[in-house]
UniProtKB/TrEMBL annotation:
The lineage of its organism: Bacteria, Pseudomonadati, Pseudomonadota, Alphaproteobacteria, Acetobacterales. It comes from the Bacteria. It comes from Acetobacter cibinongensis. GO terms for molecular function: DNA-binding transcription factor activity; sequence-specific DNA binding. This is HTH lysR-type domain-containing protein. Keywords: DNA-binding, Transcription, Transcription regulation.
Amino acid sequence: MKNFRKNVPSLNALVTLEAVVRHRSFTMAAGELGVSQAAVSRQIAVLEQDLGIPLFIRGYRTIDPTPNCLVLVETLSKSFADIMQVVDCVRVSERKAKQTVTIRTSAAFATLWLLPRLGTLHALFPTTQIRLASQDSRAALNMDGTDVAVWFGLPPFEKGNVVGTRKDTVYPVCSPSFLSRVPDPDAFLSAPAHLIEHDNTNREWDSWRQWFIDAGIKAKKTESDLSLSHYADVLAAAKAGQGVALGWHVLVRQSLEDGSLTRLGSREVKCSGCYNVITSLQDTSHGVGEAIALWILQNL
């Protein structure tokens, strides 16, 4: 490639030659290239002078490529097609490199489930920028500008396609130090104290009162002693030994594994709602959003 520019004629002239041979017309080639017929004639003349051979047999209103010209143009056509394919691949790669996928979910799911797995997600989709939009009110769930949503509750969801669902179970959790002060978990749940609750307007998240009913426990008390607006804060308070919280298995699994939380007793309740993995009806992510949605569903 060192002497490429010295040995190879003008690229503009070669492009012009390919167009003339393909159309068998100087006029049509000029129209495709957006130049005058005279400019096309000049490019061909310069090319013939550079190569030292005639490229066309010129008749009355006709031009016929010479055998040498056909050999040259056959190679040019293949080379130009290869160049176009590579350029298209580079352009697609660049679009993917700038691809942003917006995932909308609750603050609890974003903090406790999604953020710890972002490293894995980035490794699987290295050219995708992940944008997290978190909220807690179902009434505000809006798929506009959202590629993927993970939402706890019951379908349907406006402007969204539910890819799949995942059921969950709820059970009491506390810190190991708090559990050490509870000799009999079943007796404790019959007369509970230090209950921590998530103050959420979404009633599809069970309250302590509803959990006791569903668990079949006639507790002497069902009101919480501490109410917090964010579920991550509820778990943080439980980890600090402030009391007992309701643990959604999907969200507390990692805390159970690392030992910062432990179950209090063996009672559990299956949730009436479920985690819904939703994709937008208007896919603007070229399929990347759906692939991420399927990955989330498989790992819930």
